Structures are given as C-alpha cells and as structure tokens.
Amino acid sequence: MESCIEAQHLSFHYTDEVGCAVSPEILKDLSLRFEPGTFVAVLGQNGCGKSTLAKQMNAIFLPTGGHMYVDGIDTLDEEKLYEVRQHVGMVFQNPDNQIVATIVEEDVAFGPENLGLPPEEIRQRVDDALKAVGMYDYRLHAPSQLSGGQKQRIAIAGVIAMRPSCIVLDEPTAMLDPVGRREVMKTIRIMNQKYGITIVLITHFMEEAAQADRVIVMDDGRVVMDDVPEEVFSHVEQMKKLGLDVPQVTQLLYELQKCGMDLDSHIITEDACIEALFQKLT
C-alpha cells in the first residue's frame, strides 16, 4: 500500500535568493513513512524542526537535500505543487490566520471555489464539511462571534472541503482553552476514525499525543523515537532529558514506581491507571 507521505533522507536549511545556505540544517537526513489512514503525533521542543517538517509535507518548504513524496508525487516537481496541496491540507496554530470570509459557510467554500468546482458541488462539500466538524448549525454565523475552538473547527472544515487524503495540523490547540482543545481533538479523531483521513498532529500536549496511533519524537532536526504512544511514553527519563513531559497518568505511575510499587510503565490512560491501581491495592 502506497504511503500518503514519505520523506527520504530529507534535509532542509534556509537559503538566500541565489540558493546559498543562510542557516544551519533544520532537518537532518530524515526518513519517515506515514501510512494512509493513520493518526501520527509529532513531539519535540521548540526549534527541533517539527513545524518545518509539517511545512515540507504541504510543499510550503521544499527539501534542500533528499526528497518528500506525497501520494507518490515528488514535492520538488514544481509543476505538481498544486496537486500536492490538494492531497495534503494544513491547519495552523491561529485559526484567525486561516479565516478569510465574514460568514462561516462562505469561508468553508473559499477553497472549493478556487478549485473551479460547480456551485452544486461546492454546496455539498461545504455542508458535508460543516456537519463533519459539528458546525453546520453555525453556517450563517460570523466567525468573529465564535469561540477559539469553534473557529479552529471552521478552519478544519475549510480544509476538509478540499477533500484531502491527509491533514497536517501544526499545534492547532496551542491558543485554545481546555474546552476548545477537547472540541478540536474530538474533531480530529472523527476525521481519522470515521472518514479515514491521515492525521499528522504537531503538538506540545502529551495527552493529545497519547490519543495517536504513533508518536514521533524529534530533537535537533532528527527523529530520536518513533513508536506507539505506550512505548514512547514509557521512557520517562529520556523524555525528560529531551525537555518533554509525559501524560499525567504516566508521570503518576513513574513516581509510584520510584516508591517501590510494581506497576506497568506502558499505561497512558486514566481508565487503565485506575484498573492497575485497583488490582495492586486490593
């Protein structure tokens, strides 16, 4: 099965107008494969290269070494950049930067209109996208009247209306309160589980990453861990050395282990934690 996104020995540094390097390498010989329909979280400290990797997937940035393939298309093929961006949609940290219209449904229609689709197809895509993110009842509202979480769901709907096979979200909940974060994460899970869209989530929130199928940890432009969440977060000390946290449940069990309790270090959910403690204490 062909991967949705694949990096092969990918490197990147900023260049000037004549192509000379003006920064150190931000991405360093990365080789990664993202299978269709998976939910992958990417973690790392600020400056590790995770946002740069996200922009490579949508061909906002192009490799200075190696290759990035999107559904088999090399992003270095300038004639196919438009096609690449139809396959991979991007959602950024601040939803206000992606909202371009004064009415919700008009904003969601912006992308399909630029594809030159017939009006009836645009209407169907807009309605489907708004229903998918639970915002159909707000279709005639002004985005300025919505909460941060609702705005981000509108931004996601605008991407969904383009019918991409993959959505890359670069810290989409960073500016939201806990309620907004829950709304957006629920929407992301629906996109992945119900509609089979490949999700690549860049995040600083460990509880969000714990919901993914796979977690990639980056440091200094390289991948240092790549596994299921249970395995990645079981390496508490290594995560701390990288300047990262672990889910609160994992941290609790780690502290109890240091006090002498024999507990499974791969537990990352509250329900599993409660069950483990109940078994241990009864």
Give the helix tally. Answer: 11
Q: For the residues shown, what is the average pLDDT?
A: 92
Q: Report on the biggest sheet.
A: 6 strands, mixed
The separation of the N and C termini measures 47 Å
Oligomer: single chain
As a whole number of angstroms, the C-alpha radius of gyration is 20 Å
β content, as a range? 15-25%
Percent of residues in helices comes to 25-40%
**Overall form:** globular
Structural class: alpha/beta
User: Strand order across the biggest sheet?
Assistant: 6-7-8-3-9-10
Low-confidence stretches: none
DSSP strand tally: 10
Order of H and E elements: EEEHEEHEHHHEHEHEEHHHH
How does this structure look, described?
By secondary structure, this protein is α/β, with parallel strands linked by helices. It is built from 11 helices and 10 strands. The chain has helices at residues 50-57, 81-87, 104-114, 119-132, 148-160, 178-193, 206-209, 229-233, 236-241, 248-258, 270-281; strands spanning 5-12, 27-34, 39-43, 65-70, 73-74, 88-91, 166-170, 198-202, 214-219, 222-227. The strands form 2 sheets. The chain has a 6-stranded mixed beta sheet with strand order 6-7-8-3-9-10, with helices on both faces. β7 (166-170), α6 (178-193) and β8 form a beta-alpha-beta unit. The longest helix has 16 residues, at 178-193. The model has no long low-confidence stretch (mean pLDDT 92).
